[in-house]
Amino acid sequence: MSGTRIKEKxxxxxxxxxxxxxxxxxxxxxxxxxxxxxxxKRYFEIAKNLDIFATLFKEVNTxxxxxxNPNKVIKVGIDAMLRSLDPYTNYIPEDDIEDFRTQSxxxxxxxxxxxxxxxxxxxxxxxxxxxxxQKNGLKIGDEVIRINxxxxxxxxxxxxxxxxxxxxxxxxxxxxxxxxxxEPLILNFKRExxxxxxVPYFGMVAEDVGYVKLTEFKMQAGxxxxxxxxxxxxxxxxxxxxDLRGNPGGLLIEAVNIVNIFxxxxxxxxxxxxxxxxxxxxxxxxxxxxxxxIPLAVLINSASASASEIVxxxxxDYDRGxxxxxxxxxxxxxxxxRPLSYNSQLKVTTAKYYTPSGRCIQALDYxxxxxxxxxxxxxxxxxxxxxxxxxxxxxDGGGVDPDVLVExxxxxxxxxxxxxxxxxxxxxxxxxxEHPDKADLKNIELTPAEYEDFKEWLxxxxxxxxxxxxxxxxxxxxxxKEEKYYEKIKEQLYSxxxxxxxxxxxxxxDFKGQIxxxxxxxxxxxxxxxxxxxxxxxxxxxxxxxxxxxxxxxxQYTRLLSTEN
Length: 565
Hints:
Layout: H1 3-35, H2 41-63, H3 70-83, E1 90-92, H4 97-105, E2 107-110, E3 113-118, E4 121-127, H5 132-135, E5 143-147, E6 150-151, H6 157-164, E7 171-177, E8 185-190, E9 192-195, E10 201-206, E11 209-213, H7 221-234, E12 239-243, H8 252-259, E13 268-274, E14 281-284, E15 296-300, H9 307-317, E16 322-325, E17 333-339, E18 345-354, E19 385-387, E20 393-395, E21 404-405, H10 413-420, H11 423-434, H12 448-458, H13 468-482, H14 486-504, H15 507-510, H16 512-537, H17 542-552, H18 554-560
Parallel strand pairs: 11-12, 12-15, 15-16, 16-21
Antiparallel strand pairs: 1-18, 2-9, 3-4, 5-6, 5-7, 7-8, 10-11, 13-14, 13-18, 17-18, 19-20
């Protein structure tokens, strides 16, 4: 028998032994459930199904035509089981623990750069201020071609990111291609402890209106918002906008801390209720607030979830400020993590949370959502009414409804295509290197001539796209053929199709405003990083414009927070 065949046989025997060990362990667990708990149908069903799973896996592993990976197969089974419960109960294997810890704490060892795959290339899309990447010359727009001695052209963005991470004080080198340079550059860095800020930006958006952008609810989020509000008041802010748009949530206690900035000590913020009643809890504000009177607007949208909804819903329940924007995501479930064997963990939903008025904002159906992730329309008959402190009506059943609805602008298909295919990004890089004189400008504004230059630059680029009208028309043609109407209406269909194609020729001009907005924000990031991109968006942001107007009109602000509304 050859050495290769002997090795293969040993590997199969090892897998079989491992399988038998798993089977024995699961069987022991099954017996244990029966032996150490009160006998009953529920425990018998648990034991029976664990035994079925173990014996099934043993047979598949022994008889299946190809070799199987036990870790992969078992994880698929676990993931499928948990998906049948809700989208937020997840198994975290040992290999993913570090990423999970980064998500929870906002800290990791690296150089302070974010990469993404654009047009099949790994490019630096953001450089964090003050860290090794910026201090040692890495630029947004650089294409990474090698990390240390590893070529990255066949690696995913995640794999590339992992190569850049590592223990603090260890070296790493990046070989990059840079716009306008013929030869690649080799840049050397020392990894350090990176802390991702929960508040990437705060500043003044009007003479007396301060603005705080909160993107995460990781550790220290409450402290960061508190410091931002305190500093803005020193700068002359007499009103505050708290921006929670796109914030997916995080630590519940940080939501409590943020509400506490604007609400007195001892007030209920959120309560949690689940099957294990001893774990039910009521969370109240614990500290002296920063300001309980300053007019406040909280911005939300369909991607504001969980802890974001606790903050927005509680501010709304106490009539402490106005909620502005679009209906929030609708995630009213609480998760905790539990350690499992072999350094893995389970993130499991244990409770629902309720705002002070008693409402739960969990969407009634979390498995079916609109394409943008927002909650579908909930019938009035399924909603329950609750009352705020000022006796205003608020409802449960699917997210937080804003006090002032701002219609969401739909991104045009051409603008979406230019963005996802990297043309907005690449032109911003080109613009930056060709306009070094604009580094001192706070806001970047493209001139008509510069937009014409962008259109000229696009001529040899692929930015093909299909509009929703074209997709609907294709479906109509297919349905017409199925139902035998096609021959009767095909001339009208082709005429409509030709009209749409002709109309698309003008899309660069018809949707000029959207495209310029994307270009200006991307270009601003080249000069002033994330802060520049955020600041440049203010003048064209309908939610911020609406919030500034509301805060500037004290009579309307007061009326909207009263039952006279």
